[in-house]
Amino acid sequence: MTANHIASVDQGTASSRCLIFDASARVVSVSQKEHRNIYPRPGWVEHDPREIRANVLEVVQDALRSAQLQPADLVALGITNQRETTVLWDRANGEPVHNAITWQDMRTDRLVRELAEDGGQDRFKERCGLPLTTYFAAPKIRWLLDSLPGVRERAEAGEVLFGTMDTWLIWNLTGEHVTDPTNASRTMLMSLSSLDWDDELLDAFGVPRAMLPEIRSSAEVYGHADGLGGVPVASALGDQSAALFGQTCFNEGDAKCTYGTGSFLLMNTGTKRVASSHGLLTTVGYKIGEQPPTYALEGSIAVTGSLVQWLRDNLELIGSAPEIETLARTVEDNGGCYFVPAFSGLFAPHWQSDARGVIAGLTGYIKKGHLARAVLEATAWQTREVVDAMNLDAAVDLTTLRVDGGMTANNLLMQFLADVLDVPVVRPIVAETPSLGAAYAAGLAVGFWPDMEALRANWHRAAEWLPTMDAALRDKSFRKWNKAVARTRDWVDDDD
User: Fold this and answer.
1) Once rounded to an integer, what is the mean pLDDT over residues 404-423?
2) Helices 109-116 and 137-147, packing angle to 10 deg
3) Summary mean pLDDT of the chain
4) Alpha-carbon distance 245 to 487, whole Å?
5) Which pLDDT score is estimated for 1?
6) In the prediction, which pLDDT does 199 show?
7) How, if at all, do strands 100-101 and 74-81 pair?
């Protein structure tokens, strides 16, 4: 049989899944498996790389089985992944030397503040596009090198390797130690201009070059997966870049927001690196083969879908995530209640790691339905903050927002999002666009799809929400939101 399908692995913050697509970019099979979040201390968040490795192999095999396909039916496999999450492992036996430190983890807060004493939070921004925060990989690498006995010396000798989750998976599938610019650009160690590891940044963070993967393009054959019949592993894209690509945001000014554990809004800025002066990140959107890189502006929101999970698991006000919409609809509005979920500090556009979450405006009138509303509305207001910053940086106002991810199934949230942004919000038929983007890039690499115009022809609108909120109410509500945000700041003390 001629191979006529393509597989995409989406290794996310909460789970790993495999989607299999046909030549029309139609999903023919899905398999998903959650993994544990490990919390050794408050503010510390880890994953077990071994568990993730096993889960990825399991979901690929299960997706093939469900579609009644064999590995030989796949032209390629693409990978998209949670970014910034940091793994170190032994080159000789392939085993991790520590749990993966996730992007949400805040154990490097003191180190970040020490690094910022010389040059401030934007000390390295001109080189790598990123502010100094706990979010990115370089401080996590440094913590591991400083904290694990003997590991620094072995890393300097090339005996201990570093990777984000794409690199960890490609290593386990093919034996190749590689990454792509979308993931490398989230380490604080890559020059945005050269797309190579930067000696000045390596020296500042104390990270040996010998432990770093080779940076290749986002769409090329890195190697072949021996455990999956030799299928080519042909793309790697950080999840938000993959969503940008899967949403076919190929034109300058196109923007999308993915709503998952956190939410991430990216705008394509073409071949120009736009330096943000309003709290956004300059990052690599994608690099396809030998083509020049496409850059993007990004606004990162740490807590959106995970806030719904918190309401479910910690407060037990709902039994499942979809129930939040039903609960929120038991009231007409938020009753004056605002929830700012700064569980890991404030991300874009504020970048304040000393902030912590607050619920503001509580009165005796508030019921659990109002809390549910406030939880959903927090996602929309955080998006509004990012969009306002992006409009200023890009010098052009957003006119439409393409959305994807699990939270887009919540119609109440999507309507409120359109209302607070005052622009149409559009969801495509395939809402899991990070998986689609990784499949598209892998398909381009092996000639499964001829060009990007063929990908654009596959994009179809599934739903659209238009703004209906009165402007005066929108402005008042946003003013209240900003007052609530102000109350989150400066909570963490030096002795915490």
Assistant:
1) 94
2) 110
3) 93
4) 37
5) 43
6) 96
7) unpaired
The 3-state DSSP class for residue 45 equals coil
Closest CA to 95 of 149, 191, 168, 31: 168
Burial of 354 (0-12, 13-18, 19+ CB in 10 A): middle
Number of neighbours of residue 415 by Cβ within 10 angstroms = 17
The full DSSP string for 261-329 is SSEEEEEEEET--PPPSSS-EEEEEE--TTSPPEEEEEEEES-SHHHHHHHHHTS-S-SSTTHHHHHHT
**Burial class, 213, CB count within 10 angstroms (exposed 0-12 / middle 13-18 / buried 19+):** buried
Contact 125, 345 (CB under 8 A): no
Q: How far is CA 119 from CA 114, 171, 183, 337, 457, in A?
A: 10, 36, 25, 39, 47
| Nearest in space to 115 (alpha carbons), one of 105, 125, 129, 104 | 125
| Distance (Å, whole) CA 405 – CA 305 | 10
**CA nearest to 74, candidates 446, 450, 429, 436:** 446
Token pair, residue 429, equals 């038929």
Quick: pLDDT tens for 326-365. 999 999 999 999 999 999 888 889 888 889 999 999 999 9
Report the 3 state secondary structure along 197-249: ECHHHHHHHCCCHHHCCEECCCEEEEEEEHHHCCEEEEEEEEHHHHHHHHCCC
| Residue appearing with tokens 């093919």 | 174
Label residue 256 by pLDDT band (50, 70, 90): very high
pLDDT above 80 for 11: yes
Question: What is the value of pTM for the model shown?
Answer: 0.84
d(CA 334, CA 487): 18
